[in-house]
Amino acid sequence: MNAIQIQQAFDGIQNFDGIQNGANIYVEWERLCKLKKAYVGLPLTKHIRMLCRIGVRYDNINEVQQGRVDGTLPAENAGLRGFEWHDSRTLRNLRNGEIYLRLESGTFKSKTEKEYRLDGQVIEFDDYKHMMLSSEMPKKKEGHLTFNVKVSDIIAIHKFSTTNAEEIKEGEEMQEDGI
To answer: Which of 86, 103, 140, 162 is the most exposed place for a label (fewest CB within 10 A)?
Structure first.
């Protein structure tokens, strides 16, 4: 996707159900894995599907506010090093000019789906992890996450709805009851 397609996707989501900043959405992206020198050029990618929030002001997040009060975070926001805001949801990298989408972890429990692919074919991570840099190794992350995803890596943006999930459950129960 590019910046225009991202904006069109957001406009479509907003017009669909009045979803505003802070809404939970599913974002899918795929990026090249960081590889050791001997394996550079190998088409090894990481595909991620995650429940995220968009348009959240960092200073309005409860964990950030608590961190500022208890001293685990600086008293004032120091801003983003190497980035400038492009609009309310995207950032521009000052070094290379790339546009990034600013995302927060979702507010609902949802398992992040990760797949590793070699030339488009799904592979087992353990079989290829020896080729990757240590920064690619999974780390246990807890609490609130704030991160940036390169717009050109984004594959899809989906609306999240708890009512759709309830309708699916009811439909499954009806089929089980023979209705």
So the answer is: 140
Q: Each residue of 29-41: pLDDT tens digit?
A: 999 999 999 999 9
Locate 93 and state its tokens. 């990298």
Question: What does the alpha-carbon distance between residue 14 and residue 19 come to, in Å, rounded to a whole number?
Answer: 5
Polymer length in residues for the chain? 179
Q: What is the pLDDT of residue 130?
A: 95
- Give pLDDT tens digits for 40-86: 999 999 999 999 888 777 777 778 788 888 888 877 777 788 999 88
Total domains, the chain: 1
Mind spelling out the 3-state secondary structure of 28-96? EEEEECCECHHHCCCCEEEEEEEEEEECCCHHHCHHHHHHHHHCCCCCCCCCCCCEEECCCCEEEECCC
Report the distance separating Cα 170 and Cα 118, nearest Å. Answer: 39
Bigger pLDDT: 2 or 178? 2
CA atoms within 13 A on the CB side of 15: 6
Burial (Cβ within 10 Å: 0-12, 13-18, ≥19) of residue 10: buried
